[in-house]
Amino acid sequence: MVSVKDLRSLRVLLVQPKNSEGAALRSHLMRIGCHVEEIWPPPSTFENIDIVFAMFDQIIEHKLTFEWQADDPPAVLIGVIDYENPLAIDRLLRIRANAVIGLPIRPFGILTNLLVTVNNFRREKRLCANLHRMQAKLETCRTIERAKLAMMLTNSRSEQEAYGMLRQLAMRRRTTVEVVSGEILNALDWCDEDMPTSP
After folding, report:
1. Taking CA 130 as the corner, what is the angle to CA 132 and CA 113, rounded to the nearest 5 degrees?
2. How many angstroms separate the first and last alpha carbons of the chain?
3. Residue 139: partners with Cβ closer than 8 Å, 6 or more residues away
4. Is the peptide bond before 104 cis (omega within 30 degrees of 0)?
5. Local structure of 15: helix, strand or coil
6. How does pLDDT run across 44-89, given as a tens digit for each residue?
7. How far does CA 136 lie from the centroid of its chain?
8. Neighbours of 181 (CB within 10 A)
9. CA separation for the pair 21, 16 (Å, rounded)
10. Which of 33, 37, 117 is nearest to 75 (CA)?
């Protein structure tokens, strides 16, 4: 969990033009200990950054493109808006901003937004990583089960014998049971339509 004492390790990018509001935001973030960089116009990629503050009213007003991978965001995104502009709100919703702060900049609330959004963002990343690992594991199990069934049906083997054959092949070739299973399914041109269905 990220705490107040961890703020100095956070890399913050401010996507904003040079103006008084931008200076106020930068000054406050530096006061609470963040490492802050600024850029304008918005970059095409975001690398080695933990948090992005972006002034969306300015982005829309200048008709600029803001490239953001909403499905796999590279960092926490906090939108900064001058007023509740429907265009800005719609854009923030579509790119799944983690939080929104309003102008003028007020010190109260920024620290809380930082800590809550960073911790939620990292928790979601961990959950997504665990989900991908589970999906990969399930797909591996599915491949092996399909290969076992294919061998049982084509070679009149028991389930235990079929799995034993897969393991022996894998050991002999110094690879995994999953790799051998995939090769067997490809060789037999085995697909889901070949799976027997329950009556």
Report:
1. 110
2. 52
3. none
4. yes
5. strand
6. 999 999 999 999 999 999 999 999 999 999 999 999 998 878 888 8
7. 16
8. 25
9. 9
10. 117
